[in-house]
Fold these 2 entries.
Entry 1:
Amino acid sequence: MSTTAEGTETRVTLADVAAEAGVSLATISKVLNGRPDVSPPTRARVEQLLAHHGYQRRNGATSTKAELLELVFHELDRIWSMELIDGVEKVAKDNGLSLVLTVTGDRHSPGSEWLDGVLRRRPAGVVLVFSDLPPDLRERLRSRAIPFVIVDPAGDPSPDVPSVGSANWSGGLAATRHLIELGHRRIAAITGPADMMCSLARLDGYRSAMNSAGLPVEAEWVRFGDFHVEGGRREAMQLLDRPDRPTAIFAGSDLQALGTLEAARALGLSVPHDLSIVGYDDIPLSRWVSPRLTTVHQPLRQMGVEAAKLVLAARTDDASASSPRIDLATSLVVRDSTAPPAD
């Protein structure tokens, strides 16, 4: 609104703002919709004029109170994902927010179609379980003042992306040291996909423990799986169906450890008498299988809690500008699937 010389108020249209800013109506629309193809000086000038004239976005953060917290996965695993969901849901509930779950894209980033939906929903914040976010998605979320945080058990986000992860290298080190201390010397590793930073970090921990103990790392004993049961079973079958089979396997996820357990049983091997197995994650099922699984506890629920807190904090201050990175500690949980080697 603006005031005339007679003191009466007149409504300022978007066409008026466009003319005053010296841009087209299409550019005004791009700014309002968070499009990335507008130069920062032009965006700032338009936003300043919109604020000066009191323009209210119909679906903007200034006109409605966001009541949603969005959690985005590339896939929903019934066991692993629930730990993260529980953590984010607790923070959402404590803050009077509803939780929305979205499945989109691949493990590296959400699908491009997701962005249009989240801009319409205008959640209070977004927690994403991906390796990273493409620069254009980051800028469009930031242009609409939608804070976001990546939960990062599976990647290494860019430095300017707030994220919550865990100590993957330390976890791989602790798992392998445990097997070495039991007396194992032929220790294999089944990690995750080769293009995921957490897979490489856990594998580096394994290698460090082996090297520190003066033990060789046989090339054929290092396998890249997919973090799922079938992938673990497939890789373990190849490792165990050979004369010089390992006496212990460090699996980069509990699901792969369960697949390894299936492979051992299929080959008539007893766990832990013939083969010791260490997993990673400490999902609830690891306590109920037989034998109970020795594993590395990754605090998935707490990672969800911390990510949700971080994204909500970014609504009220400039926390996102410093792009904090939080790494939570891992710890070894010794149960029944490991023992000294029989030979």
Note: Residues 2-9, 59-64 have pLDDT under 50 and may be disordered.
Entry 2:
Amino acid sequence: MSEAAGRPAAPAHPTAVAADDPSGLLLSLEPLLREWLPRQRWFAGKGRPVTGFTLDSVTPLLPGAALLHLLVRAHQPPADDEGPGDRYQLLIGTAGLLPQQLAPATIGAITRGPLAGRTAYEALQDPRQASVLLERLRIPGALGALRFHRGPHGQVTRGLVPRPLQAEQSNSSVVYGDRLIAKFFRRVVAGVNPDLELPLALAREGCDRVPAPVAWFETRTGDSGDTEETTTLGVLQPFLKGAADGWDLALKHLTNEEDFTYEARQLGRATAEVHTALARALPTVTYSRAQTEQLAGTMIRRLETTAQQVPALLPHVPALRTAFAALHDLAADGRTRQAQRIHGDLHLGQCLREASGAWRLIDFEGEPSRPLAERRMPHPPHRDIAGMLRSFDYAARSARPWNAAWSQACRAAYCAGYAEVSGTDPRTDPVLLRAYETDKAVYEALYEARHRPDWLPVPMAALARLAEEVPR
């Protein structure tokens, strides 16, 4: 036996592991991901154990395994016993020795498999690795399973210094040189994400109330032709440097006991401009009697299901059901309503006011917990309006003592501003507005009960008020 034959085989080169041996890569990373993934703010399967992982794709963004783009499915009982599992997008770096400044980004030390002896970490926290992503967005084309695209709006400048945002959200964002911001979708589903689709449509209409996408990237699955499906993975847009977050601005006015009605009115005008442009850019539909009745039925079922999970809601169910029953009954009159693409999750935190005073709307993804097909469905604009009215209430309730007059004044100013642009005051359809506001508050009650119990009194106070608005 030769000396070479007597030695153990050398470990596979990291390049081979990443590109040609996904099972080996999974062997190295799976124990770490079981611990790390459920701790992330954007992980959707909290409270259920992860039973395994499947790699949908592995794309090295740098030679070897220094920077890996992964689409990985997490399997959890009982929700996906028969399904493929939720799919997550990860950008993972590996290094023999991790610099001290990247210690908070550590996923874990790899102890087995081909990458044993290396440390895995969240690469978006590493400026060097985040710069690689920007460079890929600067150059259109294909790389492994990924496709990079450039739009006609704006430029991608080389060498912009990356700065990851630390705010809790359902995705991850990186600011580049205070000029651009990349949103990296975490839980991804097949299809075009509305946060790309709608801003592109608005840009074609010349609506500047929403930052136009500069670049984006995606993956495609299936065969070429009609069966191929696109999945949006990330979007690069202008960063509105110095713009004030609408939520923070509202709280500042509340704290200083300052009037906010001018800003609310201007925000109403901005919302109407976006709705009007979306109605021009994308198809609209007329809600038939059957569709309106179906909408009311869905809201009733959501109320009853939520009440079983939030017992504090149970005493209000009979009165709240009247909000949806009134919508159902109104459909019998033969009155139709126009439905269109909307923002889908509109609140003060999705709005930015620039130094010029102009309002911009951002984050068109919709409510991430809802299926993509549902988020892309047309709705009457009242759904967005109800979301903003609820946001004024949330802001007012955060003040001590609760400033009910502030909320009422902002709500009225917002609707008035909306009417100035659209020609229709949303308050002229009180049945539809009440139904959407009630449905939104029910959604909030379930979210707060699960994630922020201390905030549950906010939607519960609104639901108590809405329950009292029983038609006489």
Note: The chain has three domains: 11-123, 126-239, 244-468.
